């Protein structure tokens, strides 16, 4: 399996591309602005088609490129239903964006939620619901990869902001303790912004949410 990270868009949102050349399939996690131009050459190089797009939550910087990705690839979209209004009516976020930014709604093919298992790329991914930053924030955890893709719930030494509509710090802290800090200590945390971290480091040193 190949693993690519691209920080894109006006607020440098991470997009994660996982390709499995032996299967000829790939998964993209989050879709910031202009992500398709970045991932299309990688897909061609690895001789993979993008089968699925996983959206960790509905904030504009994570779904701005989603409609283009779906048009170009035909990928199936997975997300949490708590953010359905943001996916279907992204103009709700206009006041929190840069004026020149463009938005398109994106259709979700499958709503996923807490505790669901999802098979992709020959691996099992567990979905966990981690609201607080955004009502529909979810993470995708692969035990085989020792990795969790957590959206904007948790960052290295920080947490997602909770001053946006639907934000709730107490809910976020509870989500982090119950859904992220309970993962194995060695689990690598891939966040929506910034560098990777791991469960052990955040449980021990994160100044916002202690274990």
From TrEMBL:
Q: Would the keyword Thylakoid be found if you checked this record's keyword annotation?
A: no
What keywords are assigned to this protein?
Answer: Hydrolase, Metal-binding, Zinc
Q: Which CDD domains does the record cross-reference, listed alphabetically?
A: metallo-hydrolase-like_MBL-fold
> Highest taxon of the source?
Bacteria
UniProt cofactor(s): Zn(2+)
Where is the Metallo-beta-lactamase domain positioned along the sequence? 12-193
GO MF terms here are:
hydrolase activity; metal ion binding
Hydrolase as UniProt keyword:
yes
Name this polypeptide is given: MBL fold metallo-hydrolase
What is the scientific name of the source organism? Answer: Cephaloticoccus capnophilus
């Amino acid at each position: 399996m190949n693993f690519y990270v691209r920080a894109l868009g006006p607020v440098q949102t991470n997009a994660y591309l996982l390709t499995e050349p032996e299967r000829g399939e790939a998964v993209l996690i989050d879709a910031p602005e202009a992500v398709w131009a970045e991932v299309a050459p990688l897909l061609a190089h690895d001789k993979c088609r993008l089968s699925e797009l996983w959206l960790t939550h509905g904030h504009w910087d994570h779904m701005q490129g989603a409609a283009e990705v779906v048009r170009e690839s035909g990928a199936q979209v997975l997300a949490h239903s708590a953010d359905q209004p943001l996916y279907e009516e992204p103009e709700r976020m206009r006041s929190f964006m840069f004026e020149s930014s463009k938005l398109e709604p994106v259709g979700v093919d499958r709503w996923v939620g807490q505790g669901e298992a999802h098979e992709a790329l020959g691996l099992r991914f567990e979905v966990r619901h981690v609201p607080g930053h955004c009502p529909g924030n979810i993470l995708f955890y692969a035990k085989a990869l020792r990795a969790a893709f957590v959206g904007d719930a948790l960052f290295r030494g920080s947490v997602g902001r909770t001053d946006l509509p639907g934000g709730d710090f107490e809910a976020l802290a509870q989500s982090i303790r119950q859904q992220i800090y309970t993962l194995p200590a060695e689990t690598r945390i891939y966040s929506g912004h910034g560098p990777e971290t791991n469960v052990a480091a955040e449980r021990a040193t994160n100044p916002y949410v202690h274990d």
